[in-house]
Design a protein that fits this description.
The structure holds two protein chains of two kinds. By secondary structure, chain A is an alpha+beta fold. Chain A is 36% helix and 17% strand. Chain A is built from five helices and five strands. Chain B is built from twelve helices and 14 strands. Chain B has a five-stranded antiparallel sheet with strand order 4-5-10-6-7. A four-stranded antiparallel sheet of chain B has the order 11-12-13-14, sandwiched between helices. Chain B has a three-stranded parallel sheet with strand order 1-3-2, with helices on one face. Chain B is globular, with a radius of gyration of 19 Å. The chains are: A alpha+beta, B alpha+beta. The interface between A and B is medium-sized, with 32 and 31 residues.
């Protein structure tokens, strides 16, 4: 085995792991770092269930080699809550029943958070376009879009209050 | 996946050295959105993966006096955020914006789209109409190849096994020039082009087209330049007759296949329609400059 030693940051914490050169970052996160929030749907970059951020950019973890993460910052769904308090997106996904089986949910949450960081007040069309890379076979998307809209509103209000 | 050895060199010299001395088949990795999936299907052979993203300049895009130098590993999401590039090459940026999802654009690179050489690659027709040139480094120096000559077949380009695409140079366009890219897909996003057309036009002060380039994708083994379609536009004010003639020229030049995404007849027709519409959009953009 051609093992590669990698030092990276996951959700702000320094991590180190050794993985074979052909192992995906998805498998590293799930099987070596026990971050099982990231899901494997298709393994070919089509479904978005393994959405994470790499240096702040939204990517599919199945299309990244674990070896490539050296020195990079990784963000997963486990990093959304702070001090045990759920992120507004998580709150609103629950409130609006925007999930059924739940497999796609971590990917949707990470992708939606990435969208709202770039665009705090997206239109419905912008939300649907930004989440086009995340597939859900249960909900029909409508509740997901409503939950993102609602979370965006709460987050904008939160920002105003903080000012 | 096959057994891999992974290297991420931080200089061009080291990368070329790795390519030319490797004993096993080498794969160059940028965004990996095609490569990692292709490697999943392989079961034998060891492979050397050379990740070129750490080489200085590979992910940058810089202007010089007469051209834009694009690092081939720059991701589509980095590229499409560059308003300075969008202002000059709106068609090239819209082509990059059509590739896959936000997640895929976070990784997929322009150089990867080019080297993967899919007949349906969205950025290739837009690079061709903008006269883009590939800078290729090998053990004996560099050579320059126009994008339309870089591609040699389905999934094939002219890189030798010890050569690396190190930059894509796009010349600054003449005054009153703009471009556009359109593709047809049956969905609204997340799909592969059934047919695509890129057009670049230069208009004089009276609105007469003084120069044009037309390239079409997904309708032949490679994206192709269609000089006859450009000739139909040059010297006209892009009136209906000229647009119709350009559309007919693109349809004529197309050499498509029938598959589950479209038939020969459909692709031939649609590539003409896309040519006509892209020419109109490019011309309107000149007016807006």
């Amino acid at each position: 085995m051609n093992g590669v030693t990698v030092s990276a940051k996951v959700n702000g914490d320094a991590v180190q792991y050794v993985c074979p050169a052909d192992e995906s970052l998805l498998d590293v996160l799930r099987n070596r770092l026990n971050l099982t929030g990231v899901k494997e749907g298709c393994g070919t970059g089509d479904c978005g269930a393994c959405s994470i951020t790499l240096d702040g950019r939204l990517v599919c973890a199945c299309l990244v080699l674990g070896a490539e993460a050296e020195g990079r910052e990784i963000g997963t769904v486990e990093g959304l809550s702070e001090g045990g308090k759920l992120h507004p997106l998580q709150e609103e996904f629950i409130e609006k029943a925007a999930l059924q089986c739940g497999i796609c949910t971590p990917g949707f949450l990470v992708a939606a958070k990435s969208l709202l960081e770039r665009n705090p007040n997206p239109t419905e069309e912008e939300i649907r376009y930004a989440l086009a890379g995340n597939l859900c076979r249960c909900t029909g998307y409508d509740k997901i879009v409503r939950a993102v809209q609602s979370a965006a509103k709460i987050m904008r209000r939160g920002k105003k209050a903080a000012r | 996946m096959v057994a891999l050895t992974y290297h991420a060199p931080d200089s061009l010299e080291e990368a070329v050295q790795l390519l030319s001395t490797a004993r096993q088949p080498v794969k160059v990795l940028s965004g990996g959105t095609d490569l990692i999936i292709q490697m999943q299907g392989l079961t034998q052979d060891e492979r050397l993966v050379v990740d070129v993203k750490k080489i200085p300049g590979m992910r940058a895009a810089d202007w010089s006096d007469d051209h834009l130098r694009l690092g081939p590993s720059m991701s589509c999401s980095q590229f499409t955020k560059r308003q300075d590039i969008q202002a000059v090459f709106p068609g090239l940026v819209e082509a990059a914006y059509l590739i896959g999802s936000t997640q895929v654009q976070g990784r997929a690179s322009l150089g990867g789209n080019l080297c993967n050489a899919s007949p349906a690659a969205d950025t290739i027709p837009a690079l061709i109409v903008n006269r883009a040139v590939c800078l290729i480094q090998g053990p004996n120096g560099t050579r320059r190849v126009n994008v339309e000559d870089f591609l040699t077949g389905v999934g094939k380009q002219c890189l030798a096994s010890d050569e690396l695409l190190v930059a894509i140079e796009v010349p600054k366009p003449a005054a009153r020039t703009s471009d556009a890219y359109l593709r047809f897909i049956p969905r609204t996003e997340m799909d592969i082009a059934v047919a695509g057309a890129a057009v670049s036009v230069t208009l004089d002060d009276d609105g007469v087209c003084s120069n044009a380039r037309v390239a079409i994708g997904a309708v032949a083994p490679t994206a192709i330049l269609v000089p006859s379609a450009a000739e139909a536009l040059i010297g006209t004010k892009l009136d209906d007759d000229a647009l119709h003639a350009a559309a007919a020229a693109s349809s004529q030049a197309a050499n498509p296949i029938s598959d589950r995404r479209g038939t020969v007849e459909f692709r031939r027709h649609v590539v003409g329609v896309l040519t006509k519409r892209a020419a109109k959009i490019a011309a309107n953009r000149v007016g807006a400059v």
